[in-house]
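Hey, I'm writing a tutorial for new members on how sequence and structure tokens pair up, and I'd like a real worked example in the thread rather than a made-up one. If someone can provide the structure for the chain below, I'll link this post from the tutorial.
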Amino acid sequence: MTNHPPKYNVYGLGNALVDIECALSVETLAAIGMDKGVMTLLDEAVQNNAIAQLNSHQTKRICGGSAANTIIAISQLGGKTFYGCKVADDEYGQFYTQDLVDCGVDTNLTSHDPEPGITGKCLVLITPDADRTMGTFLGISSQLSEADLNPEAIAAAEYTYMEGFLVSGENSKQAAIKASHLAKAAGRKVAMSLSDYNMVKFFRPGLLEMIGDGVDMLFANESEALLMADTDDFATAIEHTKTLAKTFAITRGPAGSILFDGEQVLEIAPHPVTAIDTLGAGDMYAGGVLYGITHGLGWAQAGKLGSTASAQLVTGYGARMGTDELQAVLKQVVGE
């Protein structure tokens, strides 16, 4: 156990995916044949075919992955962060690494040469109802393993944050479990996101392996929390989540969110906005909360930061806000 002050507020571990974002109609989405509103794992040929069908649409690329979005948000807010992931020695991998560095995030990617392969990509399709549908080819990210961890950075981080998407690969799941053990051995805290309804639906036992004897902080949306607890009753889901984590946050879309600070459940009011694109809303919420609780904000204020930032995010396209815009949200919340 370390008594040293943390060098990092949060060490993140997750998939490295270059997001290819595209706005399209519900009819076009149906023609492509992807399940609306969830994340589906695709092989490279299927994803390339989907991309080919969008050649008449405008697309934008940005470095993504659920935990990466959260880590970048924390960095933009002023936090010290590290992101552990895996990219290949290709143009997308170079783009991803440089984007992380430009965002002020330390990463294992700069400490060694990448391996041959194909960097993961996530096709993000946004329909006019602001829903986001994701088709992910993990590429070399599926090979993320314990060898990609940085034990020194984990031991130097107040929180280690893991995305639930890592459960879909045995090596990446084991890497997450190892990272959790390293953090706890160093006297640090562990946070985790359930990430997606389909992860809970198809990989619930693996998520429970990652949670182990409990995490310090768990993030979920309402549908994920209900499914995790195998219930339709939200109050029951809250009680069940208390058995998985010392503290947690559950987002409820237009109904706001709740935070459990270890003693009481706090209701965080929603910020009504006209949503254009909900991609990354949960990631931004987690970034705001994690920044808040590692920078002296109370739980209610941290929840308000996460809620306000995620509400602002969904009024535009993409999973990331400008740094100045996010800093303005922080000043607004802290100043109130």
